[in-house]
Structure formats: C-alpha cells, structure tokens
Amino acid sequence: MKFLVETIGCQQNEYDASRLAIFLKSAGFIKSTAKEAGVIFILACSVRQMAVDRIIGRIRNWQRDGKKIYITACVTDDDKKKFTKKGVTYFKDFDELSNILGLKAISYKLTADSCYVPIMTGCNNFCSYCIVPYTRGREKSRSTNEIIKEVTQLISNFSTVQYGSEKPKIILLGQNVNSYEYGFAELLKKINDLPGDFIISFMSNHPKDMKADVIDAIAKLPKVNKEIHLPLQAGSDKILKAMNRPYTAEEYLRLVESLKSKVPKVKLTTDIIVGFPGETEEDFQQTVKVCKKVGFSLAYINKYSPRKGTASYKLGDPIAWSEKQRRWKILDNLINKNK
Ligand code: SF4
Hints:
By secondary structure, the chain is an alpha/beta fold. The chain has 12 helices and 13 strands. The protein has helices at residues 11-26, 49-64, 77-85, 94-101, 132-135, 144-158, 184-192, 212-220, 237-242, 249-262, 281-294, 321-336, and strands spanning 2-7, 30-31, 39-44, 68-73, 89-90, 116-118, 120-121, 140-141, 169-173, 199-203, 227-229, 267-274, 298-303. The chain has a 5-stranded parallel beta sheet with strand order 2-1-3-4-5, with helices on both faces. Iron/sulfur cluster (SF4) binds at residues 123, 125-127, 130, 132-133, 175-176, 206.
C-alpha cells in the first residue's frame, strides 16, 4: 500500500512524521505522492488553525479519489468529532494505529536522518493563544538514560553516512526544553561528552525559564550550536501579559544581553505573533523596537488566528487581516529580508 504523511506545524510533528514513516515502511508500506497514495496520514497542529482548515478542505478531494485518511498529533476534541464525521480515523499512537490497521507489533529502527530527539512532551505554560497543554497534556520529561541511549544510537549511524561538509545534528525537542525535569544544562553536558563530531541544537526555549546554567553550557560546550531560538512573541508588556507570557520586554532584553556577552558568536532566532487581540499600533511598535535592539537573524512571524478551546479565543479576532498582513510585512522586511 502506498502512503503519504502530511505534516502541519512544529518540529515535534516533523519528528513524529519521520518516526511514523519509518514505522509504516517497516510494516511494508511504500512512501509515495498525494496523487498515488492510497492512504494519507495527517499530523495536525494545535496552533495553526488556518492550516488545519486547509487540510479539512483537501480531505473531501482525497476521499473522492478513494483514499483512506488517518489523523493524529494535536487534535482537539472538537476537531476529532469534525474529522470523524467526515470519515477520517483518529489514532493516538503507534499501538492504536497497529490495532486499527491490523498490524503486528513492529519494532522500528531510528535512521541517521532522524536526528530529532524529544526530551520531553507536553507543556505547563498555558500561553493564552495555544492549545498544546490541552492536546498534548502536561510536561513529561524522558529519563536522561533513555535520551543518552537514543543519541548514542544516532551517533553510531552518523559514522556510516556521508554528510558532505555539514556536521550531522542532534536536535533536542520539547515545548520548553529549559524546564527539562532532570536538568537541561546537565543533559547538554552529557551529550556533548559523547564521542563523535556532531552539533547539538535544541528548541524551544521559554525566556522565563532560560537560566544562567544553560547560558554557561551554551558558552562552554563546543558541540552546542550557538544559534538559539528564543520566542519573543511580542515586545509590548501589555500584550505579553494578555498572552500569559510571564516576562517583560526588558527582562527579555536582559536575557539577550546575557547571551550576547557570554556567547559572543550567538545568533538569535525567534517567533512573533502579530495582530493579537488588543495589539495597538503602539504595542506593535514596541515589538519593532525590541526586534531592532536584538538583531534577530531569523523570525517565524505568525498572524494571529484564534483557536477554539484556548483562553484567548474569547477575545475574538478584532484586528483586520490586512492590518495583520501590514505588521507582518514590516517585521519580515526588518528581520528576514536582505539577509
Ligand atoms: S510554551 Fe506556550 S506556546 Fe509553547 S507550547 Fe507551551 S503553551 Fe504553547
């Protein structure tokens, strides 16, 4: 049977998609295109409502062509009902999928291109626009031993694969890696001490939880990438508060200063939401100001779209799409263009 995995959203989904593809291939499925696939697996995203809506729009066409559709990842209870009504099958994990497809338990091997290593799942932060804590549950850290074992296995695969001039990367994943239960700085050190020539990256960081020990580890450990993703989301304290992001613009800038002084080669990337309910021109200009001060090398800029089930959903969506587009363009020109 030919299959396709469609992914929306974050690196966690990218990682899960590559594991799902390996799992399906080991069960005899063949990776294919949307046109040829008989079965399509969707990894849905809890944040990007518009992307989910687009997928819903494509489901009918796929079904008309006789394809069977399965969905997993960040799916709200409401969406689950919506998808089920459309004849889409939801599955929680590989065990459930094995049961649905009638497959025997299959062990799958991580390959050299699966460099994403989740160190924790879930989130405790409840940013007001985000549904991850509701769909993926509370934070749960994997044990350090389990992570080291998986990374060691990946590194042994690296040595048998040609990577050209690029060094292979281990990317540690979590919604908030800084709150890794067993000590994130210690984990970085342990991975850094493993033999081999590779780079350690990680995401995402939460500005409220990135402390001096992690900054010191970034500075001192040679294998740790000096490009750090530090989501700002907004530069206005009023909007940060409404987003339930418990830091101020000044605290964020202090953290950036600390990173810049201890890690002279640091490059910073970020996430920003424009058009959050209540964001005035003045609020937006504060975001512009913070961006200018930091000098990000890249920003993932999202136009706010309300997600049912989140705290900010009840605030509506008062800012016109054209205005969000204008703000998006200003930041995109400032940060991402002419690089
Ligand atoms: S930190 Fe905030 S934005 Fe990130 S997953 Fe948690 S609740 Fe969502």
